[in-house]
UniProtKB/TrEMBL annotation:
Keywords: Flavoprotein, FMN, Oxidoreductase
CDD domains per the UniProt record, alphabetical: alpha_hydroxyacid_oxid_FMN (cd02809)
Classification via Gene3D superfamilies: Aldolase class I (3.20.20.70)
UniProt domain FMN hydroxy acid dehydrogenase: residue ranges: 1-389
Protein name per UniProt: Alpha-hydroxy-acid oxidizing protein
Length: 392
């Protein structure tokens, strides 16, 4: 790669990989079972091609969006990711700080390393909070209240994780929380003792494997053992159904989104439950392997919600400015990035996350000019060719 800085998101990933111990790195890269859905997420962006509007004056381009009445300087939001403290001691402070500087949203995972209260104290936001669907009202109500007290502007309920995905990759690398030397990981540790030592120091210097919200709520919300990686199912209580979503709707006054929507039927059900937005997502391919690519699921969700005023976001496989434009053309108001911001964090802490956002924003601005669009709201289905095989 010579002396050139990271040119794109894949370069940031390569830096993170080079610097990191393989155990935490492969946790971020990991996906469920055969990675079919994860690969599909990435490939779908190549299958959709662009149709520019040339002969447009694109001197003044504006990549801002309006979401729930707030203007954001970017259509790229940071997705909730659990326990970034295992990548870098600054964890969410780096992600939320970079998001704030870029004028976009940072979504605090229920399984965050630093508590949402501490993140809000350090980072002016906008912050959203993501809730996992485990247990009953006693498990999740304290988290909804905590998010409200911390000033989070929207609540995201992740529906695709009643139990943990089958991440065989994590088992093979010997990634466990807390870290344990095992037959699976001994080879890696012995080959790269410097990286392993750096990782252990990272864990000691920051929140490590702690989950900040547990101490503040006094309840685990089903998270007491999120990262006994191989024993997910045994610990989660998958009892969250329509009644629980209705209760969350009553508890939360602000914008409510559900994350993990991949079909028109699910989108309609969510709408009927009174949500304000849906996130078309398959959890980055980390939950049910066999789900369609997020981009491929987007058109049917957009059609199902057309005219209802429900906001649509998409995540899964966003690595380029053109990926963002394709998702917006097919009906998303905004997108989220999961792995990319965590790679930036692992590579260089806060400046690494800044770099990820700067790369995407530079690409988006250039791509808008090349596409002949001045504002992101101008984008529509006429700007893309979708494979005929995508009909639903
Ligand atoms: C996640 N994701 C996730 N989602 C969620 O709702 N709550 C969470 O705590 C987490 N944790 C988490 C950790 C890590 C390391 C990753 C990579 C992902 C899923 C995340 O929000 C998002 O849906 C995907 O990451 C999007 O796909 P890309 O951008 O990673 O391809």
């Amino acid at each position: 790669r010579g002396g050139v800085g990271p040119l794109n998101i894949d370069d940031v990933r390569a830096r993170a990989r080079k610097r990191s111990c393989a155990l935490p790195f492969s946790y971020v890269d990991s996906a469920a079972e055969d990675f079919a859905t994860h690969r599909a997420n990435l490939r779908a962006f190549d299958e959709v091609t662009l149709r520019p509007d040339l002969l447009t004056d694109v001197r003044d381009r504006d990549r801002s969006i309006t979401l729930f009445g707030r203007t954001l300087a970017s259509p790229v939001l940071l997705a909730p990711t659990g326990m970034p403290g295992i990548q870098h001691a600054d964890a969410e402070f780096a992600g939320a700080g970079a998001a704030h500087a870029a004028g976009t949203v940072f979504t605090v995972s229920m399984a965050s390393s630093h508590s949402v209260t501490r993140i809000a104290e350090r980072c002016p936001g906008p912050l959203w909070f993501q809730l996992y669907p485990w247990g009953n009202a006693d498990d999740f109500t304290p988290y909804v209240e905590l998010a409200a007290r911390a000033g989070c502007e929207a609540l995201v309920v992740t529906l695709d994780t009643p139990v943990g995905g089958n991440r065989e990759a994590d088992i093979r690398t010997g990634f466990t929380m807390p870290p344990r030397l095992s037959r699976a990981n001994a080879g890696e540790v012995l080959r790269h003792p410097v990286r392993f030592g750096r990782w252990i120091r990272t864990l000691a210097a920051g929140p490590g494997i702690a989950m900040g919200n547990i101490a503040e709520t006094g309840v685990t919300g089903g998270m007491n053992a999120v990262h006994q990686a191989t024993k997910f199912e045994a610990k989660f209580v998958p009892g969250f159904s329509a009644a629980e979503l209705a209760l969350v709707r009553r508890l939360w006054d602000g914008p409510l989104l559900v994350k993990g929507i991949t079909t028109a039927e699910q989108a309609r059900r969510a709408r009927a439950a009174g949500v304000d937005g849906v996130i078309v997502s398959n959890h980055g391919g980390r939950q049910l392997d066999g789900l369609p690519a997020s981009l491929r699921a987007l058109p049917e969700v957009a059609e199902a919600l057309d005219g209802t005023g429900t906001e649509i976001l998409l995540d899964g496989g966003i690595r380029r400015g053109t990926d963002v434009l394709k998702a917006l053309a097919l009906g998303a108001r905004a997108v989220m990035i999961g792995r990319p911001w965590v790679w930036g964090l692992a590579a260089a802490g806060r400046p690494g996350v800044d770099t990820v956002l700067r790369i995407l924003h530079t690409e988006i601005e250039r791509d808008m000019a090349l596409m002949g669009v001045r504002t992101l709201a101008d984008l529509g289905p006429r700007h893309v060719n979708v494979p005929a095989a995508w009909a639903y």
